[in-house]
Amino acid sequence: MVEYSNPKELLTSFLHQLDDFSALDTFKFLAEASNQHYHSYQITYWTLDKEFKTLLVEIDLLKGKMSFGPWGTCAMETVKL
User: Nearest to residue 39, comparing CAs of 67, 73, 13?
Assistant: First the structure.
């Protein structure tokens, strides 16, 4: 199982790796979609082109992976933590 102490720090560092990230707008923990080993977040940010984007980010602590994709779509990309 993967441990992380500060989810906002982990996700903020992830956002800075996106090609179009400019500034974080909101960071929301989705308690209704989360449990002890699976955490979901809604993140909105501004792009370099001044567009507003919303991502769904899911962290699976047991499998040590993070999945992310545009809010409201089924398309998700997965990376190892």
Answer: 67
